[in-house]
Design brief:
Order of helices and strands: HHHHHHEEHHHHHHHH
Shape: globular
Oligomer: single chain
Strand order of the largest sheet: 1-2
Distance between the termini: 36 Å
Radius of gyration: 20 Å
């Protein structure tokens, strides 16, 4: 029960991102500062965690050896993920962005052939190219249906241009996040833990955020104190608390695929937490019955997809061991 509770708490803190990004946009803050300030503020907190775990030297050594890959994949996994998410907040309420973001499950599945699954056999390790999980994609269609229902209602009240500006950046982010993170996981596997990797990716993505900040400085000026404070809250809640809680939850069940699927499925609650937060804090209009139906379908789809995906991975591993 503890891993599930930790997963739910992580989903709650992750939802703060969507709520505060929308709040900053409604108060006149630029998406440029909403995105870049979060990562600037994350650095000291993550540094403190990794230093406290006495793991800072191996991280810097690995970054020195592979600095080009660190900068490239971190800029994609963090930069091209979070900047578009913040940009989309200008054109859609946070709960809609949070719901659309769940398309990353589908995007991650489509990227599967770019990665390998390592199987341990009596004759040693063996790498197998991953395949697109067809059964998982079928479950993903359920998620797409839920997103389509909500976007359909959203489109009825605004122009097509605004709908696309609220969707396309999220789709870009949905591919960038799993691509960058998985490439870095392949690079760090067996050498760095999750906390080291997140800190390293944050540091390696700083050139991206510095360039974006310079652009913001010359186009929109400096951020307000209110936006700076809210960005700090996002960094603490989503960048630190949510990440740590989610890693703890997955570490507790990493040997049990069924329980791991259950923990991952708790992240579907981000959508519901975001709805409640926006209604209470931002006086956002309460979603209609059609939108609630779409959100419910997304949650069900995420749960089914998580279980099916882990079942498939376990079955493939067992089959390969049997053949060996």
């Amino acid at each position: 029960m503890r891993p599930i509770i930790l997963g739910i708490c992580a989903a709650f803190f992750f939802s703060v991102t969507f709520i505060l990004n929308r709040a900053m946009e409604l108060s006149g803050g630029s998406w440029i500062w909403s995105a870049s300030l979060r990562y600037f503020f994350m650095v000291p907190f993550l540094l403190a965690i990794v230093i406290a775990r006495k793991n800072i030297r191996p991280l810097f050594q690995n970054m020195k050896e592979h600095w080009g890959q660190w900068v490239l994949w971190s800029s994609i996994g963090f930069g091209l993920f979070y900047a578009p998410i913040c940009f989309a907040a200008a054109f859609a309420p946070g709960w809609l962005t949070a719901s659309t973001w769940q398309i990353t499950i589908i995007s991650g599945s489509l990227l599967a052939p770019l990665f390998f699954l390592t199987i341990t056999t009596p004759n040693g390790s063996k790498k197998i190219r991953r395949k697109i999980p067809v059964r998982g994609l079928f479950m993903s269609l359920i998620i797409l249906l839920g997103i389509a229902l909500m976007q359909l209602e959203h489109a009825s009240s605004i122009s097509l241009k605004h709908v696309l500006l609220g969707i396309i950046p999220v789709i870009i982010a949905s591919f960038a996040y799993p691509l960058g993170n998985r490439k870095m996981m392949d690079l760090c596997v067996g050498r760095l833990d999750a906390y080291q990797r997140v800190l390293g990716m944050t540091l390696a993505s700083l050139p991206f955020w510095f360039i974006l900040s310079l652009y913001g400085l010359f186009t929109v000026g400096v951020p307000s104190i209110e936006q700076t404070t809210q960005s700090l809250l996002v960094a603490i809640s989503s960048g630190v608390l949510a990440t740590v809680l989610f890693f703890q939850a997955t570490d507790l069940v990493r040997g049990n695929m069924q329980k791991l699927a259950a923990v991952e499925a708790t992240q579907s609650l981000e959508v519901l937490f975001t709805v409640v937060g926006e209604v209470l804090l931002l006086s956002t209009a309460f979603p209609s019955l059609l939108s609630w139906t779409g959100m419910f379908i997304i949650v069900i789809g995420m749960i089914l997809h998580s279980y099916v995906s882990h079942y498939k991975t376990t079955k493939l591993a067992n089959n390969q061991l049997a053949k060996s």
